[in-house]
Amino acid sequence: MTGKAFDHLLDTSGLKCPLPVIRARKLIRTMPSGTRLKIICTDPLAEIDIPHLAASDGHQLAAKGRDGDQFWYVLELAHNS
User: Fold this and answer.
1) Residues 2, 31: contact at Cβ < 8 Å?
2) Which of 29, 32, 26, 35 is nearest to 8 (CA)?
3) Residue 54 confidence class, pLDDT cut points 50, 70, 90
């Protein structure tokens, strides 16, 4: 990966499904394609929801991981949703 790992950070820690996806979609609508968005979640359902968001909206899931009770994902935005 060249350059920065991500351009924007969305921390949805403490929010339960479906709020992390709702907040991510709202933010994504304001961002140009090619932007890399890192999303941090604590809801275990994010393991399903965030990859599904990426696939259904045409974004690339560039990276994902876990730090303790936090799940994180980096999406490379394909287009405004």
Assistant:
1) no
2) 35
3) very high
Of 2 and 44, more confident = 44
Percent of the chain with pLDDT over 90: 91
Whether 53 and 25 have beta carbons less than 8 Å apart is answered as yes
Specify burial of residue 53 (Cβ count, 10 A radius: 0-12, 13-18, 19+): buried
Q: Which residue has the tokens 């968001």?
A: 53
Selected catalytic residue, list 8, 11, 15, 17: 17
Active site residue 41: no
